[in-house]
Amino acid sequence: MTDYLLQLINVALVLAVSPALVGLIRWLKARMQNRRGAPIWQPYFELRKLFGKEVVVSDTASWVFRATPYIVFASTLAVALLVPLVRIPVPVALGSDLIVVVYLLLLGTFFLALAGLDTGSPFGGMGSSREMTVAALAEPTIALAIFSLAVGAGSTDLGRIVAETLNAPTTVAAPGHLLGFAALFIVMLAETGRLPVDNPSTHLELTMIHEAMILEYSGRYLALIEWASGMKLFIFLSLLANLYVPWGIATSNDPAGLAVGLLALLGKVVVLGCAIAALETRLAKLRLFRVPELLSVSFVLALLAVTSSFVVR
Amino acid sequence: MQDLLFATLAIYVLGMISAIVLRRAAGRAAVAVFAALGSSMGAAAGVSVLVSGREVPLAPALSALHPQVQLQADPLGAVFLVLIGLVAVPAALYGFGYSKSYEGRYSLAALGVVLNALLLFLTLTVTATSPILFLFAWEGMTLAGFAAVLTEHDRQPTIRAATWYVAISHVGFLALVVMFLVLSGGDLSASFADIRTNAESLSPVALGAAFLLALAGFGAKAGIVPLHVWLPMAHPVAPSHISALLSGVVVKVAIYGFMRISLDLAGAGPAWWGGVALGIGAVSAIGGVLYALMQQDLKRLLAFSTVENVGIMLIAAGAAIVFRSYGLDELAILSIVACLYHALAHGVFKALLFLGAGSVLHATGSRDMEMFGGLSKRMPWTSAFFLLGAVAAAALPPLSGFASEWMVFQALLGGARIADPEGGAVMSVAAGALALAGGLAAACFVRAFGITFLGLPRSEESEVAHESPRSMRAGMGLLALGCIALGLLPSVIVPLLARAATGVEGRGAAVPSMQLGLALATPSGLSSFSPFALATMLLVAAAAIGLSIRMLQGPFRTRLSVTWGCGRFGQTSRMQYTATAFAEPLRRVFASVYRPLEDVSVDYHPDSKYFVYRITYASDLRQSFAAYFYHPLLLAVRIVAMRVRRLQSGSVHAYLLYVSLTVLLVLLVARVWH
Predict the structure, then answer these.
(1) Is residue B183 a contact partner of residue B202, using CB atoms and an 8 Å limit?
(2) A82 with A145: CB under 8 angstroms?
């Protein structure tokens, strides 16, 4: 029972911390670009403001448009419940499977893309079309990265993969591991709409992807979607951290271990957040039709990761 | 129980008779009732075989008729009996309402006969126990399908499609006859049990040839690349409830045949069999979905997506052969179960989507997606059902497509246990291909649903579209329930399918540890997931969010307004993204596959290039294999035919000479043979 409760606390953690992660990356970026930047907790104020506002819905839109924010938020919460964040193992009955996690996130993307088409706005259609293109091209990389992890652990169960890496610490430096990390990092940038694939801070440029798709959303709907994309970023980063550098994660329900696990998780996520901020300061956005090249780089990396994990095995 | 199948067959015959005898509504009702009754009884027989796990001889009354006519349902065939029932009952119900629009235009009697005949031959195919019976039923199925495709026989595309269909089907039929001759040592009336023993004494070369012939023969019917060209032509032009049967069931029966031969009758094959099947499956999966993405005809899109899903089934079947050749029986069984589950899941969701597309066709008179838009407000039921089917087809949790694709993934990931690095590497590439196909399918079904049902209507017909009558909605509703049930209850269904797999596997091997419970676990603990818990989580989370916003923020405040348009007024449907535009980025990315032909012509004002009168843009996709494979082939056939024509002098004397020469030749061959 405590296992399930602790897993629920995961969800609360993701809910509570993810806006701060978004704020942190924005603040770091501002600092690196010689700006003062808004405080880290600015996203909380924005969410509060958005929740209080009335919603304006296009009269073209159908029920799909209204249901989508809930579906996106709920699927992200479900992912938060499935993944190991602070401790392993995840209760078996939940089925903490990596493939399930990936496809649950795709479920959210699927409905966001539909909502983009629902209002009949050209921006929405543009965003949907591009988002689905990027999502489709990112899938094979994810599958191969999963495969390379599964070769080592003999399972796609997240808890088992983490436990396996903890048991054999040398695998962290194995080439398959490093290549897989690089591949998944690129895919993470694409899936969470960061530079150089998409620019999270533009509105109304013809280059944007995610922001074009959700252009018609306002009020509580927008708040739910923004919050969900923050959670998605947090989950992706903590998965990257826990799958490839699992140290510090608690293996029992001992309070001290859990505290260490929490601190370790936050530390790792902050480091990855700094990396994103640095990248976004250094890199310019790629042209849309250069993005497939970037994703094929990640695909080749993942393929190499699988091959080398077979050879090293 | 044994006579249940006899009753099923008899009911189909009654259905055919009533189609001829009765007129109008009575005829349509009788056809639907008999088809639904017969197929549900067949499905009941299938379920009882699966639950008992034993082979059951069926319809003994028929074998009294002639000793050669032996029907039997073993667990593998039973799965497909169930599939026929799952799809045919809703399709028949739907057909009652749908075929009303055919009254006075086309022959309802022919349509009713064809529907029941198709079901009859499908049932015979999966219960036949000898090659001769199987081939008879198979050919009957082909011809019934041919007649079904020809329903709207006064249109040029229909005739073209039917010709392609029947031509490729018969090339496939030839391959099957030769394959059975090889396996049975020349005796087509031998029983399957005899063939099983005979195959053990065959040389690896003969078995390999039989395998390739089976792949080609069944692949021609299943629509594997490059034998699929007829499928996207033929499936869309049939009446929609028949399209549902063609894509949902007939194609699966070809998969049944392939599994029957490659996993059962031909014995345990070497790994290269599986490799070939995996490769062709991966090419079909990606090729099918890539072309599905580019279609503007909604039913054609669905037909191409069938090619994709056949590819996925073939990947799973190929993986089963590979695993068995390495002695990894548990994984082989997992692969077979995944293949069968995907056959069920795809049968149900593809039938649902075809019926949904049929409702749209019924309401607007068009299949062209560029004419649609905004239908979700005009056809709320149809759009909800179609969305459900689209989510399942995109393999998203917690619906049926995800459950089966998850198992295929798990099976492929099990490839890491193969000792040879090559074996594992092939599996990993197949997993990558499967993931790409899955991602593209998600894009494809966002496009299919979003462009058709959302946004503003792009034509007057869509503007005034109406919801379908009750019988059609009921048919779709049943299939939608099927998608949900297959998505949520794999842990109940999988152990039953595992019986079919063990029957195929080793005849009497133990059922592997497929856990029965809410969660679905793979054998020897690869991983597990619980679709039930997942669905609960999603529902609870969505409800909790809504409630907590309401409690914290008070009542929802919502205002309706026009879509924001950058300062312009008057949103029209011409400003929306079109189906073609939606797929444009992917068309560019995969330009080397599509080789699009584009033609832009601009009319300028005679005095200045800056004033444009009109821009015409035309674009077409070439199907590379059509250009490089079928065109030369057809050309060669034509040249040969021209030469052969010289023999046709029209003179009776010459023909008599031919006849006597042929007889002489046959006698000589027979003499040399013995």
Answers:
(1) yes
(2) no
On whether any CB of chain B is under 8 Å from the CB of A133, the answer is: yes
Q: Please report how many Cα atoms fall inside a 13 Å half-sphere around the Cα of residue B283, on the Cβ side.
A: 14
Give the count of beta carbons closer than 10 Å to the beta carbon of residue A40: 17
Q: Which residues of B touch A118 (CB under 8 A)?
A: 450, 454-455
Ramachandran bin of B350, using left for φ above 0, alpha for ψ from -120 to 50, beta for the remaining angles: alpha
Q: Which of A103, A221, A306 to substitute to test the interface with B, most B CBs within 10 Å?
A: A103
Could you give the CA distance from residue A95 to residue B520 in angstroms, rounded to a whole number?
Answer: 9
Between CA B434 and CA A133 the distance in angstroms is 16
Asked if B586's CB is within 8 angstroms of A119's CB, the reply is no
Q: Where are the alpha helices (DSSP H) in B22-107?
A: 24-52, 60-65, 75-98
The candidate with the shortest Cα–Cα distance to A92, out of A174, A209, A7, A179, is A7
Q: Which two tokens stand for residue A222?
A: 């927008």
Residue B442: its chain A contacts at CB < 8 A?
106, 109-110, 132, 135-136
Hey, what's the torsion of the CAs at A277, A279, A281, A282, to 10 degrees? Answer: 160
Predicted confidence (pLDDT) per residue in A231-254, tens digit: 999 999 999 999 888 888 888 888
**Region of poorest pLDDT, from A105-114, A157-166, B153-162:** A157-166
Cα dist from B35 to A66, B38, B39, B58, whole Å: 40, 5, 6, 19
In angstroms, the CA A221 to CA A271 distance is: 31
Put simply, whether A121 touches B (Cβ < 8 Å) is yes
DSSP structure string for B515-562: --SSSEE-GGGS-EE-HHHHHHHHHHHHHHHHHHHHHHH-S--EEEEP
**What's the mean pLDDT when you consider all of chain A?**
88
Domain residue ranges in chain A: 2-312
Residue A292 preceded by cis peptide, ω within 30: no
pLDDT greater than 80 at residue B307: yes
d(CA B89, CA B339): 23
pLDDT in tens, B564-606: 877 777 778 888 889 988 998 998 888 888 887 778 888 888 8
Q: Angle at Cα B52 formed by Cα B49 and Cα B54, nearest 5°?
A: 70
* Domain map (residue ranges) of chain B: 1-200+214-266, 268-545+576-589, 595-622, 629-673
Please, which pLDDT band fits residue A63 given cuts at 50, 70 and 90?
A: very high
pTM of structure = 0.93
pLDDT of residue B1: 59
Summarised one tens digit per residue, pLDDT across range A142-182 is: 888 888 888 877 788 888 888 888 888 877 778 888 898 99
Residue A203: pLDDT band by 50, 70, 90 thresholds? low
pLDDT at B90 over 90: yes
Instruction: Please give the single-letter amino acid code of residue B160.
Output: R
Contact (Cβ atoms closer than 8 angstroms) between residue A133 and residue A125:
no
What is the pLDDT of chain B when averaged over all its residues?
A: 87
B496 is written with which tokens?
Answer: 């039953």
Q: Which residues, 6 or more positions from B353, have their beta carbon under 8 angstroms from its beta carbon? A: B302, B305, B386, B389, B390, B393, B448
Closest among A41, A29, A121, A70 to A223, alpha carbons compared = A70
Instruction: Look at phi and psi of residue B66 and say left if phi exceeds 0, alpha if psi is from -120 to 50, else beta.
Output: beta
